[in-house]
């Protein structure tokens, strides 16, 4: 057996470890850039959301005539959706909803469905250095104000940070301090 040194890549993800700074970074930036180049979306205009409100996908947008179906067979829809699924599973859960939506139309793809896939790629074009950990879920209690909702979110974020700190400690990347940025004025208003 031969020691190849520290791992730098696994399953399309780059591994960057800086022992001095006690940092471990997993990134799919290169994979995402490769996917964007493959579908000629690497120079596309960037968008800020994974799915725009004006997209209303349905089976009514599926091709009905033989000509439309033949035309859509030339579009690499399944391959593009598969690439998005892999990115979603590994490091990009922020596109999970839209990938689930576009996956419903793999067997009968319409032009609007392809436009949504290209929209997601435009989103990835601007956010290929996305976060490692995030969550989005319905809060268990009903907040009476936006400030209270933000406070609940900050508490959940702090729980996640503490978990991440312990996890990194187990990996040998112990963190001395954890910084949580908040809107101080809103929190202080809530406390008074």
UniProtKB/TrEMBL annotation:
CDD domains: RNase_HI_RT_Ty1. This is Reverse transcriptase Ty1/copia-type domain-containing protein. It comes from Solanum lycopersicum (Tomato).
């Amino acid at each position: 057996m031969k020691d190849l040194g520290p791992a730098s890549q696994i399953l399309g993800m780059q591994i960057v470890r800086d022992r001095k700074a006690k940092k471990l970074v997993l990134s799919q930036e290169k994979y995402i850039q490769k996917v964007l180049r493959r579908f000629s979306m690497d120079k596309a205009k960037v968008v800020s959301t994974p799915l725009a409100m004006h997209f209303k996908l349905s089976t009514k947008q599926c091709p009905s005539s033989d000509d439309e179906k033949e035309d859509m067979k030339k579009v690499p829809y399944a391959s593009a959706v598969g690439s998005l699924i892999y990115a979603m599973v590994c490091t990009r859960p922020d596109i999970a909803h839209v990938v689930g939506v576009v996956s419903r139309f793999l067997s009968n793809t319409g032009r609007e469905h392809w436009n949504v896939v290209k929209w997601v790629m435009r989103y990835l074009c601007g956010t290929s250095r996305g976060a490692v950990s995030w969550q989005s879920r319905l809060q268990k209690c009903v907040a009476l104000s936006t400030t209270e909702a933000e406070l609940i979110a900050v508490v959940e974020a702090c729980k996640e940070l503490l978990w991440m700190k312990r996890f990194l400690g187990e990996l040998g990347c112990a963190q001395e301090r954890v910084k949580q940025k908040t809107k101080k004025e809103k929190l202080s208003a809530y406390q008074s």
